[in-house]
Predict the structure.
Amino acid sequence: MGIARTAFLLAGAMGAYAQSGGELRFCVRADPKTLDPLLAEEEVSETIRYLTGGVLIRLNRQTQRLEPELAASWKVANNARQIDFELRRNVHFSDGAPFGPADVVATIRRMMSPGLQSGIADSFRSAGGEVTARANGANGVSVFFSTPVAGLELLFDQVAISPARPAPPESAVLGPFQFAEHKSGQYVLLKRNLNYWKTGAGGKRLPNLDSIRLDIQANREIELLRYRRGELHLVDKMEPEAFERLSKEAPASVRNAGPSLDAEFLWFNQSPDAEFPAYKKRWFQSGLFRRAVSAAINRDDVIRLAYRGYAHGAAGPVSAANKLWFNARLSPPRFDPQVALKLLQQDGFRLEGNSLRDREGNAVEWSLITNAGSKPRAQIGTIVQEDLRKIGIRVNFLPLEFQSLIERITRTQQYEACLLGLTNLDIDPNSQMNVWMSSGTHHAWNPGESKPATAWEAQIDQLMELQHTSVDQAARKRAFDRIQEIVSEEQPIIYLVHPDVLVAVSPSVRDALPSPLPPHLYWNIENVSLAAPAPGRKD
Amino acid sequence: MPSRRSPVWLIGRGIAILLISGLAGATLVRLAPGFGVDERSLDARFSAPTLASIARANERDRNPLTFYLGFLKGLFHGDLGRSAVFGQPVGPLIRERAPTTIRTVLEGLILGWCAALVLATAAAVSRRAVVLAVAMAFSGSLLSIPSALLATVCLLLQLSPGTAIAAVVFPRAFPHAYEQVRAALAAPYVLMARARGLARTRVFLFHVIPAALPPLVALVGVSVTLAFGASIPIEALADSPGLGQMAWRAALGRDLPVLVSVTLLLTVIAVSSNVAADLIIMHLQRRTA
Amino acid sequence: MKLLRKLAVGFLVLVAGLSLAAGFVAPYDYARQFRDHSNAPPSHAFPLGTDDLGRDRLSRLLAGSRISLLCAPAAAMAATAIAAAIGMAAGYFGGWLDETATVLTDLFLSLPWLFVLLTLRALLPLNITPWASTAATFLLLAAVGWASGARVVRASVAEMRFAGSILHARACGCSGARLLCFHLLPNLRPVLSAQFWILVPVFLLTEANLGLLGLGITEPVPSLGNLLADLQNYQRIQEAPWMLTPALLLFLIVASLHFVVSGRDTWE
């Protein structure tokens, strides 16, 4: 009896200890640009939106299934033109005001107002034209789209509901935390939302933590140093070298969550308006040339040297992390310089000594730009340069400052080829309409075509439209699988690797479940707790 | 017209340089490739109309002259515009970050100058070639390390960014401090005071220091400019949340209001320390004349 | 001190000789990647180990110091020439020309040079060879680095204007341009040579700063600056201290240069 009682008491004490609150600390790279959840477009603002905002539906980052949050249930109706939500009852904003349908309607209305310039609103628009919302009884809300939208529920994962009454959006929130303080260049402090609606096991009010401190720290080495000193609990998206070093020191605290949704890729400028000689445009517009370049790049070496093995070869835009949309039939192009040379010969190129020449005798030489400051990208560029030198192609590799790079690829089109990696936040292909539709502004190799320049681009347009409007999930999957196959055949974008999501989680953090989907570390923040009192700071 | 050596002329010229440098800064930012380009144009969620309206909003500042005049007008009312990179008004941003930089720079200046004065005095007083050689070698070594590397070394040794600034200031201050102390020690009245049996400390405190200090004060002015200039790469590398880091991020993001404010601030520091140095020198010349 | 200066000169000559002969002395081509030997420690085959891509650090160091040692003096020469032209015109003619030149000089000294370099560098065309971009980077250094020199030259010329020899030449009817080139310029030689020797280490260090901030000379061409960029992962230094060699070499080169020109005004 005595032993049993002691054991019981001990368990109780440990439980209380694990839920003792405390402050979770991790780093973000810069100051947030906005605290308005509808305008959050860069990583830091999105982090704050995720931690403070309450949404109707949440994507579970582990199961990749949608789960009810502020909406107790939902139903897609009217051939995917309408979604009806039944809201959760007895939910309050952080300032104590009750939450109701009027707040959802007001949020959607504010989001869709053209003056706001919200990226989230644009993803709603690209999905289904104009969007309106209407309260439906005491606890119901209906949102209407002007065209059918496949997978429209997922869009609501990004929409944090703000109160209908006029107030700064950060002053009253429905998420687990609320904004408390921001010191420029130093930190953002989030305090626990005492009115958060969710409860954990045993009816305990969530979140478990008292506060979260986001330290603003651009230097990754300092971040790592501070983590090792116990001043930080989490490190997100670690550089492979740091990950390797830490995994030797403290293998229990590092985790590889597998390939991310992100991809590193390069593409050639195929825009007819580009200001370089016509013969170069002919190379870049040739599928054989692009396939040859792709085959001549040793992806395994990229993975081994630039990522120390912590990346996966990419066959297309979708990585294996995206369970629903990954096309498992595709594999990354095989590295084979001989095949590359054969393809080039078929296209009229010939090797003269060490230099590849086209039909007209022009030496094959082009510039490859990328953004300065990314070590893996600088190394990929140098590897590509060396690999292509072996088949007689001379690449002038130039890391440019980010701002001038963006200007060249989005405005002036003054570039020949670009090496870049983009962060994918969304798993649904609808979020990539702008990329794959030939008329899209982000149709990297030839933006805003008035009509598809090639037959395969026309085919992608059709398939994209199909997956976008079909309510049949299997038909959508077939269409997007085919798009991935066309991209793999034509290589308008030469995908290289999907880097792995490498993270460090302090042993004192409980229930953090790293996921390859962003946000990798704190997607279930309300359940995360600290086992020991917050580590001591030395400042 | 005031004489070219008069204080009015010097101050007037200082203000002119200040105004021109602000305009030059604005023009430079405007001409830089990537000006007015928004990172959001890489975000595939944005539609063409939204991107166009963002671009239109950025168009406003395209003429550097009208921007600058508007900026000066705002400045007159205490409004420095709004930073695109930081998403905040520039005035509060500077106010929030200035204490860090001022602390870092002050720490660097005090540490650098104290080290220079102590070592210079030690070398001059001891009159031993070894002491001088060691001090010279130390100062020469610091002069041979790029400031960005000094910042990295400070990070590695877990020293404050102020130490890196001290390491930039020290080697430039030391030779002058040594020269001044040595010259003052050899001055006839110092020899006379010592011959009359005054205590060494007394001679040093009341005769050597007063003689050596004024020329060094003028140099302190120059070292202030130097320290603020060095704070940009040092703060950027050490991730210190001050004005230097702000300037570096603003430069990468082509943030016009922040950069013009920083240029003006740096010029104010440079010009006022130069003017102060000139005035002190004039004052000294008048006293000796 | 004399012995030390001789040692410094000897060291500089040795480094210059070795790096100029990099093509013969270096074990490999600086861009060659031994991908199976990435991050190798020093060995017989790779005396200073290899970098992330398996390139021989020694070969890169030799090639890098060649670039820095050739380009920094060239840029210093250009900057000194600009300083001489502006300083002489301002000091000799005086008046409004002097005032304008002084304001221009002060302006250049107060502008954030890092941003000026950033802007000018981003304006370069893309399809130039790495060598041309290297040369351009150093030319940009010259374009912004002349101001302090111009100040010194101006002061010397203003003083020299009333020197006996110059007054004599003027009395003999010597014209402006002739006077500047044949009478003032030879007298300015010590000032100009001092400026040149002061600027060489300044440019070496500036290029290193740019390299450390990731905006210097671009891959695959090595320079002392971009070889230093490796040090940003400074926690790795403990495991691979040989990564410090470029920093050490740069330090020794600049320290030797200071020794050679010691006694010059360090504020300039």
User: Anything to note?
Assistant: DSSP finds eleven helices and two strands in chain B. The longest helix of chain B spans residues 200-238.
